[in-house]
Amino acid sequence: MSDDSKGFWGEAWTLGFTLVGLVLVFTGLGYLLDHWARTGPWLMIAGVFVGAGLGFAYLVSILFSRSWRGRDGGAGGREGRGPETNGAAGVPGRHRDREGFWR
User: Fold this and answer.
1) 102 forms bridges with which residues in the sheet?
2) Angle, to 10 degrees, between the axis of helix 3-37 and the axis of helix 42-71?
């Protein structure tokens, strides 16, 4: 497995677990509030939707930031810098790959 595919799969797993984690956390909070307020399953159901909404919003924000980073070639709008630094706070040897990850 190449380094590029490891980075892709690592990020894919992270995004997936974040989405599922947010749904589970907000469902649990809804359940606890339902139990405390004796309101039935309504707050738990609301927690599912809130968690899913926040998870998808996070997913979309990450995907859009990734696509915008790729449009300028990864330099972050800093023309004139060489490929040895490429905007990585002046650290020699660091560069962005095709997906925009620092390597």
Assistant:
1) 96
2) 160
Distances, alpha carbon 82 to alpha carbons 73, 77, 79, 97, 102, in Å = 13, 13, 8, 15, 15
pTM of the complete model:
0.59
The kind and range of the H/E element at 22 are helix 3-37
Q: Render pLDDT for 16-74 as a digit per residue (tens, 0 to 9).
A: 999 999 999 999 999 999 999 998 899 999 999 999 999 999 999 988 887 665 555 45
Whole-angstrom distance, CA of residue 6 vs CA of residue 12? 10
Left if phi > 0, otherwise alpha if psi is -120 to 50, otherwise beta: which for 40?
A: left
Torsion of CA 50, 51, 54, 59, to 10 degrees: -150
Handedness of CA 74, 79, 94, 2 (dihedral sign): positive
79-96 residue pLDDT tens: 444 444 445 555 566 667
